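Students often ask why inverse folding is considered easier than folding. One informal answer: many sequences map to the same fold, so there is more than one right answer. In these notes we will look at a single instance of the problem. The structure comes first.
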């Protein structure tokens, strides 16, 4: 469990580095510069291990300050670069389709989305632990190389879930043209394309989930109108039937399983 948390930390550093690469091409060039043959640290190593003027290591208080600053950004970056976006949107649409406003509450939906995201991303975390964290813990690679490798693993996951049409759209907007291979797609193009693709996929799944509940609403509304009971709200009558249908088909297991399986293929 501890190794998994540390692997997630390395993944977070990789995600943060990817976001910084998007924001600053100059920083991208500095971070991507490998250490020299003489063992000199790279740009990221120097930023982590040393500091200004006298070149002494950072004090504990400054390290804590930098860590707290990163913690305010890393959750948002990680959530947008993982399966969380698709899952939370589908669960929200499902709650709306059933007709329940605050049940399950938002905290429960976010918790379900978070833990299902951890389940979906487990192979990615294991790969990051194998290729980045373990070598870094053994001292065979620098933190710069560990962050680069973890970013590469996240890049592979994101590119598999991204539609080619979305990649072409943002590549054309950026004037980048065609890429020789998926590995050549920079994060500055992959990030918006991945988020757009996840939103599109989430709404497609949500539409399919909404259909059976919509049919129940139509049947109940037509029946009430035929009986002349126009003053009775169709929502009140249809909700028990929708809940019954959802329970009979084991809706939660079906939804969670389908969401997890939707990441097995590609985008």
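Output (designed amino acids):
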């Amino acid at each position: 469990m501890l190794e998994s948390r540390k692997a997630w930390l390395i993944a977070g550093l990789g995600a943060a580095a990817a976001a910084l690469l998007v924001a600053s091409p100059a920083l991208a060039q500095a971070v991507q510069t490998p250490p020299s043959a003489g063992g000199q640290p790279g740009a990221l190593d120097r930023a982590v291990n040393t500091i200004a003027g006298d070149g002494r290591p950072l004090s504990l208080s400054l390290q804590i300050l930098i860590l707290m600053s990163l913690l305010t950004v890393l959750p948002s970056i990680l959530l947008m670069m993982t399966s969380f976006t698709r899952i939370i949107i589908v669960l929200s649409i499902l709650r709306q389709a059933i007709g329940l406003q605050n049940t399950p509450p938002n905290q429960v939906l976010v918790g379900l989305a978070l833990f299902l995201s951890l389940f979906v991303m487990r192979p990615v975390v294991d790969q990051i632990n194998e290729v980045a964290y373990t070598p870094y813990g053994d001292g065979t690679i620098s933190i710069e190389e560990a962050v680069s490798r973890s970013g590469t693993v996240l890049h592979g996951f994101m590119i598999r879930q991204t539609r080619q049409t979305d990649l072409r759209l943002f590549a054309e907007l950026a004037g980048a043209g065609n890429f020789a291979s998926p590995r050549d797609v920079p994060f500055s193009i992959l990030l918006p394309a991945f988020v757009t693709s996840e939103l599109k996929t989430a709404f497609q799944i949500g539409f399919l989930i909404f259909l059976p509940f919509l049919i129940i609403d139509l049947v109940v509304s037509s029946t009430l109108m035929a009986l002349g009971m126009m003053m009775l709200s169709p929502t009140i009558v249809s909700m028990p039937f929708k809940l019954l249908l959802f329970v009979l088909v084991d809706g939660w297991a079906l939804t969670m399983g389908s969401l997890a399986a939707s990441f097995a293929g590609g985008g």
